[in-house]
Amino acid sequence: MHPLTHLGNMPIADFLRDYWQQKPVCIRNAFTDWQSIIAADELAGLSLEETVESRLIENDGVISNWRLQHGPMTDEVFAKQRPYPWTLLVQGVDNFVPEAFDFISGFRFIPGWRLDDLMVSYATKGAGVGAHYDRYDVFLIQGEGQRRWQTGQLCNSDSSLTDHKELCLLQDFQLDQTFDLEPGDLLYLPPLVAHKGVALTDNCMTYSVGFRAPSHSDVIGGIADYLGQELSADKRLKNSLQAQPAGEISAADVANLREIIAQQLTDENLVQWFGCMTTEPKNPDLDWSEEAMDEAELASIIKDAYGVLRVAEGVRLAYTWQGDGGLTLFAQGDAIACPPEATDLAMALANDLIIDVENLGIVVKNEASQALLLVLHNQGWLYFDDE
Ligand code: SIN
Ligand code: CO
Predict the structure, then answer these.
(1) CA–centroid distance, residue 328 to ligand 2 (Å)
(2) CA–CA separation, 165 vs 264, rounded Å?
(3) Is the whole-model pTM more than 0.90?
């Protein structure tokens, strides 16, 4: 699956240079031959599932009355006649719908580890989730119907919020630009830009491609937890042997602390933590299990040269090179050491997410790559599709 080379007429290089993490941009007809990815009733169906994160927001008059309900939804939720406009928002649609997974994979012109998920919303005319800001970049793509987006000021943690108990809505919204989006149009928003969307039609569906933006505090906390778990409880802090008053914590004591931390901050430790953290499944409750396959079955599929091998929906892969010519493949939060003979396969999977079976023989040509493919397949993280 190849990352997009253009958004509408705009080459990705121009987008990255002029807009990414800088300023909003609206791109009309961002996709050639736009087709909607999921129908409204399928989206409602997904929100009934236990493993799917969803919310329903009802715009009941004044903001303080707006109602938020968390999923899983029930049939009764959708059977109910609602006097007020409402929005259903479903997270992680890419974990369940192959076309949604393919769609967000197009956005891997940004490093794959940064991609978070595809959220899809369905709104009735007049509905919206209110003025707010997000701390991550987002591409908002109109799927069906029309929505009016308004962008506003740059916000931060000090921006005042309304006193709604559950929804983080901005007290002030200073209008900057207005965009009416039609199916296939895209609005990119960098982090912290105030925005609000209102459905101009019924059956208004918006796709939000969201990115991860771990805070520095998440990074430091995550590394500390990871390193802490790796270290033996037998390793203990020594005190400085320099003479010092009994009540003092000396500069030498602080230097000892710094030394312990510095010893652990190797690139190897950092990438190990980062690879595991960024490939952890968004949805750990999903069952990825697949019928186990053996070498003989694999050989016969490769011989038939038919269909594709796909990375399963929502499965996260990334790799990093090791000094010996091999690499570490991170898959769903695990680190798998791959010898040099298996690197072609690991790279093809993590970079392309799909391999034509007719080309599979080129990357699965020895025991190490065969073994890797079987391990990943038998976890349910790869599957063969006869498309
Ligand atoms: C929506 O799809 O209605 C909300 C998306 C957002 O503003 O984050
Ligand atoms: Co938002």
Answers:
(1) 35
(2) 42
(3) yes
